Amino acid sequence: MSKPRLEGKVALITGAASGIGEATVRLFIEHGAAVVVVDIQDELAHQVIASINSEKVSYYHCDVRDEEQVAAAVNYAIEKYGSLDILFSNAAILGPMTSVLDLDMERFDDVMATNVRGVAATIKHASRAMVERKIKGSIICTASVAASLGGAGPQAYSASKHAVVGLVQVACGELGKHGIRVNCVSPSGLATRMTCESFGLKQSEFEAHSGMAANLKGVVLTTKHVAEAALFLASDESAYVSGLNLNVDGGFTVVSHTFKEWN
């Protein structure tokens, strides 16, 4: 493997027990980081920790909807590893798959609490820790192509991911003077446990459906592709990149799909 790109850095990753979060934990560890796995899925998280089997990874149970738990998770990372250089705010839920005409507002509120309030809380407490310790850190958030393209996701989820992009842009402007970079990654249709269960599809079925709609053919989007984008944004290779919404979508959001149908 090439030289580790995160050697000596400490990362906190939310939603890290499965999907994009888990893939990013494994990749960050490979590249020398110490990682705190943050999630509410205790059994899955412990399985991830056990499979990695390293002193450089540990688990902290945290519901990102609860600001006190978020603050405690940040404090844990600093007490455990002595620093906090990277935040990957990734925890999210998909929410109701119904029409806007039948939208369940309680479930809508839960999506916003997890996907927006949770991201805001993690940015707040991670950046506070970085500023207090004069750490020129990297904050990364998981958004979605649904933040750029109408109809790419259900209502609550799409609204929440628009908000995530907004939070990233505002935080970028406020934290730049402290040397802290803030970016987001926006994947397109990705076969994770959450998406497959929400759509009632097997992984192969979800990937087949996504492949038909994809602009870039011959490549199946995986969690590792998104993790690699997060690795770039976490590393010094992106030292002057901030405020970016990095689409990991094979060009899906910049192509007119109506026009493509004519060809």
Give the helices and strands, then pairings.
Blueprint: E1 10-14, H1 19-30, E2 34-39, H2 42-52, E3 57-61, H3 67-81, E4 86-89, H4 105-132, E5 138-142, H5 155-175, E6 181-187, H6 193-199, H7 203-213, H8 223-234, E7 245-248, H9 257-260
Parallel strand pairs: 1-2, 1-4, 2-3, 4-5, 5-6, 6-7
Helix pairs in contact: 1-8, 3-4, 4-5
Family: Belongs to the short-chain dehydrogenases/reductases (SDR) family.
Enzyme class: oxidoreductase
GO molecular function: 3-beta-hydroxy-Delta5-steroid dehydrogenase (NAD+) activity
Written description of the protein model:
There is one protein chain. This protein has one domain (10-189, 221-248): Rossmann fold (3-Layer(aba) Sandwich), CATH 3.40.50.720. A 7-stranded parallel beta sheet has the order 3-2-1-4-5-6-7, sandwiched between helices. The model has no long low-confidence stretch (mean pLDDT 91). Helix 1 packs across helix 8 and helix 3 (67-81) packs parallel to helix 4 (105-132). With 263 residues, the protein is α/β, with parallel strands linked by helices. It is built from 9 helices and 7 strands. Helix 2 links the parallel strand 2 (34-39) and strand 3 (57-61). Helix content is 46%, strand content 14%. It has helices at residues 19-30, 42-52, 67-81, 105-132, 155-175, 193-199, 203-213, 223-234, 257-260, and strands spanning 10-14, 34-39, 57-61, 86-89, 138-142, 181-187, 245-248. The radius of gyration is 18 Å and the shape is globular. This is Reductase. Keywords: NAD, Oxidoreductase.
